[in-house]
Description:
Elements: H1 3-6, H2 11-38, H3 40-53, H4 66-75, H5 89-103, H6 110-129, H7 135-162
Amino acid sequence: MDASAFSCLGNEEVVGIALRSLISGLTAYVEQCTYQYYGYEQGNLKIQAHMESRKRGPGFSKPPDILDVLLFCLSFWHAFESTPLAPLKNNLYEIKDIRNRWAHQEAIGDSDTFRLLDSVERVLGVIQYSGRGSGEDVQDLQRVSSMKRNHILRMASRVSECG
Length: 163
């Protein structure tokens, strides 16, 4: 999808694309940090126990549900406190909140869409900066950055039409 196509999308569609863009990179990052903090065996047990408590199978599903990854990360935050993700804890809560509203088909306004795009962009940026990102994550970051720019332009054009 090229950059101009994003300007034709509604907020709910933009939120869906942004959340899908975050899944792969955040899942890999969370798994790596968990294994680094707990060791591979204990980390795997933590992930399995978390998923079983959510009535899921062992480990993160393929593809994972972004909510499972966010809840795991926030539940075991001490494993992430010394990582580059630490300053973004509030952004993860914001992503979780907007994801839940989106999943329950509540209306998502322009400001919430912008906040989600900004938070997802920040998290993907940290994943890239940490050196744990992949080529796919770079594309995801570029996609979200492009959607954010287009969203800003769309909001600005609405303001200029009114004013």
